[in-house]
Amino acid sequence: MSDTPVLQTQAALDDQFSVIQRLYEESLRTLDEGQVLHGLIVAKSNDELLVDIGGKSEGVVTARELSPGMSISDLKVGDYLEVLVYRIDSDGDGTMYLSEKRARALKTWEKVLEAHQQNEAITATVTQVVKGGVLVDLGMRGFVPASQIRRQPVGNLDEMIGKMLRLKVIDLDHKRRRVVLSQRVVLEEELNQKKQELLSTLQPGQIREGTIVRLADFGAFVDLGGIDGLIHNSELSWARVKHPSEVVKIGAKVQVEIMKFDPESKKVSLSLKHSLDDPWKAVPEALSEGAIVPATVTKINANYLLVEVVPGVTGMVPKSEFDAAAPPDVGAQLQVKILSINLGSRRITASLNASATSDAEVTAGSQSQSAERGAEPEVPTPDSAADAQEPQPAGEEASP
């Protein structure tokens, strides 16, 4: 005779015993205010839910006790909810009042405390603009001061509604369960990490891409990706620069060379002109000593003039080589004579006086040559015999 039916009967009895034991334990469970439980929706109306929380107990969840974005119409019988017992009507019929939003807030508070202890960032969506900042939805309300939203001031806080922020806790009120958060802390920590990574790779002579972030009278500041470097006006262009706005604008991408780098002070000196073609390379072919060339006056001083003789190349006209009593204006276009070129020291000396003298000599020489040509007898060719009878031009009539 087989033992199989006996074994099956014993297994069924064990299962039945387990169920009875579980039901018995649930019947002994005491429900207190403040407990968070998992419940099953067993009935619903237009304004409340009936939730089975076990232990032969049921509680009521009203519409106002649901989290923002949830509604009774969206829930159905058979759905599970995590709820908190926030009131038991002991004087009446013992009705238990449950809250989904309070259970969520309590769980969120525990997560906020853990994130604060672990120095971890949490994400939340901006839901409302209030005085001094914005509110975010963490599963509970959190406050982010306006100064803690970004590294730079936010002009219009209304633009932040619906935006997801990465936040760290900067203040907690345990009694009221209020939390103050900051995204600026997260951004600055990330920036510092980028700085450290960048600092370990910077070397003089490197060419780096950066973004112009600020202009000053003395130069332009460039964000290299976490560290700001300075391009002095003298390093913005091979030509003379009075203000960086003549060469660059905020937001522009530029290729710059690392000139100097101090790891301790984290100061970086940059050059924009060193990543451009050197205009002095064209000087040997474009200029020669004694040549008269066009120039533009770029600066006037009592002792000298500065003139641009080749784009990006400046020459000096000493005070002995121009009329100091009647100097030309800045921007004036004129002719200068190249007196000397020193490629090693990149110095060019020029003269206005010598240029004027040379012009006068050229003019006088031209007039003399014309006069000499006028004194020579004209020998008509067969094709111009008839023209020989016409009167001579006035210039030739004046010749002896």
Task: Characterise the protein shown here.
The structure is a single chain. This protein has 400 residues and is α+β, with helices and mostly antiparallel strands. It folds into four domains: 69 residues, OB fold (Dihydrolipoamide Acetyltransferase, E2P) (Beta Barrel); 68 residues, OB fold (Dihydrolipoamide Acetyltransferase, E2P) (Beta Barrel), CATH 2.40.50; 73 residues, Beta Barrel (OB fold (Dihydrolipoamide Acetyltransferase, E2P)), CATH 2.40.50; 78 residues, OB fold (Dihydrolipoamide Acetyltransferase, E2P), CATH 2.40.50.140. The protein is 23% helix and 35% strand. It is built from six helices and 20 strands. A five-stranded mixed beta barrel has the order 1-2-3-5-4. Strand 6 and strand 7 form a beta hairpin. The chain is rod-shaped and about 125 Å long. The relative contact order is 0.05.
**Main β-sheet, spatial strand arrangement:** 1-2-3-5-4
Largest sheet: 5 strands, mixed, barrel
How many domains make up the 3D coordinates? Answer: 4
Structural class computed from helices and strand pairing: alpha+beta
CATH architecture of the largest domain: Beta Barrel
Shape: rod-shaped
- N-end to C-end Cα span: 160 Å
Rg, rounded, reads: 45 Å
Order of helices and strands: HEEEEEHEEEEEHEEEEEHEEEEEHH
In CATH, what is the class of the largest domain? Mainly Beta
Query: Uncertain spans, ≥5 residues at pLDDT below 50?
Result: 375-400
What integer is the average pLDDT? 82
CATH superfamily grouping of the largest domain: Nucleic acid-binding proteins
Q: Please give the share of residues in helix.
A: 10-25%
Strand coverage percent: 35-45%
CATH fold field value of the largest domain: OB fold (Dihydrolipoamide Acetyltransferase, E2P)
Per DSSP, the total helix count is: 6
Number of strands: 20
